[in-house]
Amino acid sequence: MRKIGVLILVSVILLIAACSNDSGGEGNEKTKIAIGGKNFTEQILLVHLLGTLLEHHTDHDIVLRDGLGTSNVLTQALKDNDIQLFVDYSGTGLINILGLELQEDDTPESVYEKAKNGYEEEYGFTWLDTLGFSNTWTLILREEKAKELNVKTFSDLVPHIPDLIVGSDAQFFERADGYVGMAEKYGMGQFKDHKEMDIGLAFKAIDEGKIDVLVGYATDGRIPALNLVTLEDDKGYFPPYYAAPILRMDFLEKYPEVGEVLNMLSGVIDEKEMSAMNSKMDNDQMDEREIVEEFLLEKGLIKK
């Protein structure tokens, strides 16, 4: 009887261990994954996009922490293990975090590789595959204003700058790949005035004619909705800004299934699709969860 009892006890212990191993996927324990993000529409959607995908394909506890702040804030949060994952952009990582300069022979691929390698060496973070779209900074005008000035490129705008008011968030006027470098590259001189404001207020301001030029993101869904146009960065000042998830290397080594699931998004989202999702949130007032679930279902990445 004693032997039978021991065998039963061993069997129960093995069963409990097996169940515990199955809970997180790939034989790992269930863990908390806090996904951080910046405080604008696209980043809010990306936090929910990654979170929803992980919820459907792993048993880990997913915590969404959008609106945390800038790339520097998110990088520090990942260092401190306050978050385990966030999405950033290759050009931002290269220039603003690593402090490197864009070279004339750089390509989208080389910028991504330099950012990835630099993060691995400097921070012990790694970049997963890019999601497919690049969200560069651009100069935005009302369609009628662009026609009035006959401008299609950044260079076309230069002679008109002393008569124009520019608006953007404060970050653009401070960052390494921001206003100062752009003005130097194009010989822009000074705008008539510049206004630092929340990007949502900046779109309202340009729509109402209170500013003439808005510096914003090319994938912003309010650009087509408000009949705005973007100018071509004809001298290639801005680097490529391809979006990709970033995780600690030690976390990914312990939970490789997280990387495998997130790489299901590799190359899946193009600029038009990201802009359309942004527009659904900003213009159609759709819930972010509804938007990302609709997208993932359409792509066959989750099931109802």
- The residue fraction in helices comes out at 40-55%
Q: Categorize the overall geometry.
A: globular
The level-1 CATH class of the largest domain: Alpha Beta
Number of helices: 15
Structural class: alpha/beta
Number of domains: 2
The major beta sheet can be summarized as: 5 strands, mixed
What are the segments in which pLDDT stays under 50 over at least 5 consecutive residues? 1-27
Could you say what the CATH architecture of the largest domain is?
A: 3-Layer(aba) Sandwich
Strand order of the largest sheet: 2-1-3-10-4
Could you characterize the architecture of this molecule?
- The protein has 304 residues and is an alpha/beta fold.
- It has 2 domains: 30-134 and 240-298, Periplasmic binding protein-like II (D-Maltodextrin-Binding Protein, domain 2), CATH 3.40.190; 137-230, D-Maltodextrin-Binding Protein, domain 2, CATH 3.40.190.120.
- 47% of the residues lie in helices and 15% in strands.
- The strands form 2 sheets. A 5-stranded mixed beta sheet has the order 2-1-3-10-4, with helices on both faces.
- Helix 2 (41-57) links the parallel strand 1 (32-36) and strand 2 (61-65).
- Helix 2 packs across helix 15.
- The radius of gyration is 23 Å and the shape is globular.
- The N and C termini lie far apart (50 Å).
- Residues 1-27 have low confidence and may be disordered.
